[in-house]
Amino acid sequence: MSDELTTDLRAFAQATDRVPSLTRTTSALEASLASHKEPLMSKIFRRPLVAIAILLLIVVATPVAYALATDRFHLFVDADQPTDTINSSLQQQARAQGARADVSASKDQDGVHVQFKWNSLKEMFADCLDGSGAPRAFEASVAKDGQTTTTALDPDKHRKLMAVLVEADQLADQLHAQQVSEDECTRRVLALIRDRLTALGVAVPAATSDAPADQVRALEQAVQTWLSSGTPFQFHVGK
Amino acid sequence: MAAPAQPQELVALLAPVHDEARRLARRLCRSDHEGDDLFQEAVVRALEKLPALRDRELFRFWFFRILVTSHYSRARRSFWRRFTPLEHDDTARAVGDDGAAWAEQRFRAARVRTALTRLPAEQRAAVVMFELHGFTVEEIATIQGASVPAVKSRLSRGRDQLRRYYERIGVSAELAGVPAVARGGSES
Hints:
The structure holds two protein chains of two kinds.
Chain A: H1 4-15, H2 22-35, H3 40-46, H4 48-70, E1 73-78, H5 83-96, E2 102-108, E3 111-118, H6 121-128, E4 138-144, E5 147-152, H7 155-177, H8 182-199, H9 212-228, E6 233-237
Parallel strand pairs in A: 1-4, 3-6
Antiparallel strand pairs in A: 2-3, 4-5
Helix pairs in contact in A: 3-4, 6-7, 7-8, 8-9
Chain B: H1 7-14, H2 18-28, H3 32-49, H4 59-77, H5 99-117, H6 121-132, H7 137-144, H8 148-168
Helix pairs in contact in B: 2-3, 3-4, 4-7, 6-8, 7-8
């Protein structure tokens, strides 16, 4: 074979040639499609009378909804309960408050840690920032041995971190639009985050290697130390 | 206002292009699992948009366009996933009793998939459709909603980046001018 890339592409084509047949997957597909909810707007515009009612309801409800949406996240943790019970309770509380994060708790000798996980920065921003771009307060009340302590995430640090991440996300979108390669995009975005954090006084340790995953680990570790000292919160972005 | 599409109608239209579309979805993604998610997302979008498709004869390109657009959206919103390693090496499937050949195919397929995932989404889609699916440049332009020169530029830049990646890892690569490997498609 004249060149490796062509041979690799041929191997890739061969390796990915077999896919589940439609016959085999039709039932699953139909079930998935049948359960797919019709988009709200098309439902509204197909039924004009209902539309008026719904739109009016939205208008009337908006100030209330806005107030709820900008309210702080407050989670209650009964540290005397088993971790499974705490987790299930936290998930219910987070869902009830409209959080997109996957919230869980872990216990160690230092106490209880509440962890928020997001699958993307956009999801994280939706939870952490209100409509005006201000950080939403995160509070947790931890009850242990009959005593309850409430702690909150430092709003100033929270705001600064969000500003860095918003800037990083905008840079990534910009580079993507310019069709800059993934490697270059990753390099520049990570460099920006590191620079901005260092400027904020965050001590970012040296990464164990140049690999992006290792660099992200170092950044996360630095943010973790900076942000969550004295609070039960832990932040982690990614999967 | 058009009536909503029925899932059965979409499944019937999808049948002739299902395998090809599913392969494309998997080849655009970091793993088969992600490709199946992408395919599913495109199917749901297609169901929403199907009432607006007047000529059912155009379904094939119409659906590929939805698939590719969904791929762009996923690529943009999963910014942080770029940093995570491949979760499942499910690139290759067993190809018979020849263990050495299977291992080599597995290695080669994983290597080029890694290289492809480093390309921007538009370039990746253009390269995969041209090199692995045999689409012509004009067909890719229709699917991507781009001009023919833009697609040629994406192919050229994509190949350059693939070549540079192979050079970086110490493997020789000369892709430019090599006909598409899957269906013998040619660049006009």
